[in-house]
């Protein structure tokens, strides 16, 4: 076996070791969450603080969702946090191509991952999903912190949606420090909704 093959084998083994370590450190908090493991499904792609979800270019109404993720003190920007989001199409369906693997077989192809930089900011471009099953239109978010904790947050919702209930507007416990309702405003040619997130805020068994 020549030196190049040895180096390649070592790199592969180290890669598997790093992946295994990340999974080993993972810890679900905040109660049961079917599908929260989707936050790990990004594979080897490089994650950035901004992402564009599939369907954005060809679908109306286009929106940008943005904000800052803070550490548990509510003041310090949190670096290295992964935010996974997914939602339905304009027909209220989680569409699939048919070749999905892992959790994508459940949540479909309209999804994305964002990873915060030192400023804690995140943004993703997508379109407003349709409501379904008596629920208001919503976008599902899942958080994974750098130390391995992961958990669900309350959905991104939209102000003015007739299917919003009093419980949506004033939840007993706002996970992440917000009820998640976005007030959409037009900025520089696109409609923008803002939501800041505080890590661990109102998340049971967080410590």
Give structural notes.
With 207 residues, the chain is an alpha/beta fold. The chain has one domain (3-198): Protocatechuate 3,4-Dioxygenase, subunit A, CATH 2.60.130.10. The protein contains 3 helices and 13 strands, in the order αββββαβββββαββββ. The strands form 3 sheets. Strands 2, 3, 6, 11, 12 and 13 form a 6-stranded mixed sheet that branches. The termini are far apart. Mean pLDDT is 89; it is low at 4-22.
Quickly describe the structure.
The chain has three helices and 13 strands; from the N terminus they run H-E-E-E-E-H-E-E-E-E-E-H-E-E-E-E.
Q: What is the topological layout?
A:
Elements: H1 3-25, E1 27-28, E2 50-52, E3 62-70, E4 82-87, H2 104-107, E5 111-115, E6 121-127, E7 139-144, E8 149-152, E9 157-158, H3 166-169, E10 181-182, E11 185-187, E12 190-194, E13 197-198
Parallel strand pairs: 1-8, 2-6, 3-12, 3-13, 9-10
Antiparallel strand pairs: 3-6, 4-5, 4-7, 7-8, 11-12
Please tally the helical runs, counting DSSP H or I stretches of 4 or more residues.
3
Instruction: Please name the CATH topology.
Output: Protocatechuate 3,4-Dioxygenase, subunit A
Count of domain modules? 1
* Biggest sheet record: 6 strands, mixed
Instruction: Give me the CATH superfamily.
Output: Aromatic compound dioxygenase
Which blocks of ≥5 consecutive residues have pLDDT under 50?
4-22
Please indicate the percent range of residues in DSSP E strands (runs of 2 or more): 25-35%
Overall average pLDDT: 89
The helix/strand class is: alpha/beta
- Straight-line distance between termini: 49 Å
CATH architecture descriptor text: Sandwich
Q: Which geometry do the CA atoms define?
A: globular
CATH class: Mainly Beta
Radius of gyration: 18 Å
Q: Note the run of SSEs as H and E.
A: HEEEEHEEEEEHEEEE
Q: How many runs of DSSP E, i.e. beta strands?
A: 13
């Amino acid at each position: 076996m020549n030196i190049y093959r040895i180096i390649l084998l070592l790199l592969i083994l180290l890669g598997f070791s790093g992946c295994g370590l990340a999974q080993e450190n993972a810890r679900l908090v905040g109660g049961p969450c079917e599908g929260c493991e989707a936050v790990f499904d990004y594979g080897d792609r490089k994650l950035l603080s901004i992402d564009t979800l599939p369907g954005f270019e060809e679908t109306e109404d286009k929106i940008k969702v943005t904000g800052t993720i803070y550490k548990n003190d509510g003041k310090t920007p949190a670096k290295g946090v992964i935010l996974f989001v997914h939602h339905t199409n304009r027909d209220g369906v989680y569409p699939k191509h048919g070749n999905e693997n892992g959790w994508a077989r459940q949540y479909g192809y309209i999804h994305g991952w964002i990873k915060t930089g030192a400023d804690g900011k995140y943004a993703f471009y997508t379109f407003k999903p349709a409501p379904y099953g008596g629920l208001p239109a919503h976008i599902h978010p899942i958080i994974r912190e750098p130390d391995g904790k992961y958990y669900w947050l309350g959905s991104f919702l939209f102000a003015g949606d007739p299917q919003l209930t009093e419980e949506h507007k004033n939840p007993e416990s706002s996970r992440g420090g917000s009820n998640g309702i976005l007030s959409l405003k037009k900025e520089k040619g696109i409609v923008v909704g803002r939501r800041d997130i505080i890590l661990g805020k109102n998340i049971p068994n967080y410590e």
